[in-house]
Amino acid sequence: MKLKIGIPKGSLQESTVRIFKKAGFNIAVSSRSYFPSIDDEEMEAVMFRAQEMSRYVEDGIIDCGITGNDWVLENRSDVVRVADLVYAKQSMRPVRWVLAVSNKSNIKSAKQLKGKKIATELVNVTREYFKSKGIAADIEFSWGATEVKTRMGIDAIVELTETGTSLRANDLKIMDTICTSTTQFIANKKAMKNPWKRKKIEGIILLLKGAILAEDKVGLKMNVPKNNLDTILSLLPAMKTPTISCLTQEDWYDVDTIISEREVKLLIPKLKKAGAQGIIEYPLNKVIN
To answer: What is the pLDDT of residues 70-108, one digit of tens each?
Structure first.
């Protein structure tokens, strides 16, 4: 028995393959094939655009896949949202679909877009947004290059952003957030009722979440003399509590902990000054709670 899994082609592809590798699954993608190899005999991978992934999962063409919650909403797909995997193409935070207009525009609020044209790829969600506000606007599908449409007679756009850099580069200002979205692991309802497939999916999710949790963390270990132990422990942040082991040398301890990577450069000098020796920083692939 095999689990058919969809890997997103496009903007999420690189980050998804990287997260899977940290989770223990090596995916080899060929530019000539939509069927990447994966080093798990129980899995079969296929690549689809994130925009269409949920439709193929709902129809049972694949058992499960990774896509954005925005496209599940847009396609109105009846699938199981198995897990929320907070990673995107550039960062480890949710992305936003925003309503934006040109900096030169006199439009200050969504209400002023009544009867105006808005271009977006996220047509259905955008229509729901304007409907909820009682605003009758003309929503049209954009085939890409949406940021430049305001220079071509379009009054506003709804576009995806992580950092806002592209919008600012195209002289656009954000007026409102239409929706936020995270990467989702979704599954076909029938597949989730299959005990073998459900167990396999849950195992993959456990490893993926562990890989994501480890993304901004490192391990830190050091040797600490007994007289300095309390001082060292007071300096150490930890996910729970540090691991402390006795060394063969009397009155010395090995202290091991997991901390945020951004804290390390500030912490190591303090630990050294407080008496820690043999300090080792090491990368993490997975952190399983």
So the answer is: 999 999 999 999 999 987 555 567 889 999 999 999 999
CA 71 to chain centre: 14
- Scored b (16 or more CB within 10 A) or e, 251-280 reads ebbebbbbbeeeeeeebeeebeebebeebe
Domains 3-91+182-213 and 95-180 share a fold: yes
Domain 95-180 is found in CATH 3.40.190.10: yes
pTM of the model: 0.83
Helices (H) and strands (E) in the chain, counts: 9, 16
- What pLDDT is stored for residue 49 in this prediction? 94
Residue 17: CB partners within 8 Å, gap ≥ 6? 7, 27, 29
Q: What are the sequence ranges of the domains in the chain?
A: 3-91+182-213, 95-180, 217-282
Task: Note the CATH architecture for domain 217-282.
Answer: 2-Layer Sandwich (3.30)
CATH class of 3-91+182-213: alpha beta
Residues 140 and 65: their CA atoms lie apart, in Å, by: 28
